[in-house]
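Tutorial, part two.
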Amino acid sequence: MITKELLSLAPVVLTIGMALVVRRTLLALGSGLLLAALILHWGTVSGPVLYLVNNFTGQLYVQGQWQGWHLDVILTIALLGILTQQLARSGAVNAFAHWLFPRIRSRRQARLAVVAVGWMVFIDGIFSCLANGNVSRPLCERYRISNAQLAYLVDSTASPLCAILPFSSWGPYVMTLLAGLTFLNEAPLTAFLQVACTNFYAVITLALAALVAWSNLGFQPAAAKPEHFQTQEQQAGSPWLLGLPVLVLIGGSLLLAILSGLEGGDTLMQWLANADIGAAMRNASLGAVLLSLGLQWHQGIKVKAMLVASWMGLRSVTTALGILMMTWMVGRAIGDLETGRVMATWASAHLAQGLLLPGIFLLCAVTAFATGSSWGTFALMIPIGAEIAWQLQPQLLLPALSAVMAGSVFGDHCSPISDTTVLSATASGCAPVDHVSTQLPLALTSAGLALVGFALLGQQLSLVLVWPLMLVLMLILGTMAVKGQARTG
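Running the prediction step on this input gives:
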């Protein structure tokens, strides 16, 4: 006989199974949501339909009030989509490249420049892969940096960076999921920052990318090619067409957030905890878009071209917005089914408490690898992982959310069907299979260190001690790897 507990898990199992089979996040989430509605209102025709309608409208408007946070997130992601297309199509990214290229004097500087560009175009994971790959490819060909190494550096400064910076397109999405956790006592921004501090995989991956750029660890120089990119160095370039909108986005978000929380306390952290981060990011994103349009107008770009870029930007985020809305609806359905409580009960009976964080990390890694979607894994596992941690070890709630984030990014980072994996490879001129095979050993190294970090946190070791221990391990492994490559090279 099928119990209520088993039925509550069915939508999650169906969602993951559909994602594995059809490899379409929206279809998988929609299937799970429909099954959840049928389970909750079995026996009536109108019940599931009304539930889906109320679930959808409730994400935007409920009990006579607009859901300001959700609306701000939707507008922010739409504006960031417009901004990324404006920067790409206006020549801002290429202008930055032309400004940067003449300042490069060595192969090491070229590799470090790829990392620096990744930090400059952090706004969105997909945009970062496309922009950095296309901008840095001519530079890397000139300095004989292999396409596989370029793809690794591009991919390793895209999603991992977005996962720890609140002012990227990932920030509002994740903070919305965090805001939906009723037992989370922290403000969404404060919780996001604390989760980022223990996202071991993302931080270690960024550090490892910098080490690879500095030492050429794990890669050999590419074969010499004819230098036919010198004309790019003779073109005038400017960092400001890209830099100014990005500065407005970051600085404006932080300033507006602080201003909105001034009445909530006397310290910076209190101001941020009480800030209206959704409105701050919405307004900063709007300011960055308007500034980009103004700079393009000054350049003489036609209004029609700017409108086309804006429309393409909106189209580019329609899937992300669909996933976002479906995520909110699935999150509510999982809560109504009490799926998290059921999984928490099973975990308490069968899972050693010291393995809670490593277990969540590995589960999310497998899910994201199989589905190729970190966002889809966030949608499923943030509510469930949070519920499990809250039931078993409430003091590990935020580290458990870090394990969800880290595992999801790791799985997505290695998945051959992930959009960022494919786009970073193609933009870098590398076959996706070659990118996956060369990136996997480095990604597994970061994941191994991350598992150690989560295991230490699971043993109630203070973060003040965990990070120094992780740093020592990273230095030891890095030194051994560099020496090993020097001997074999």
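The beta strands are 61-62, 65-66. In part three we will examine how such features are distributed along the chain.
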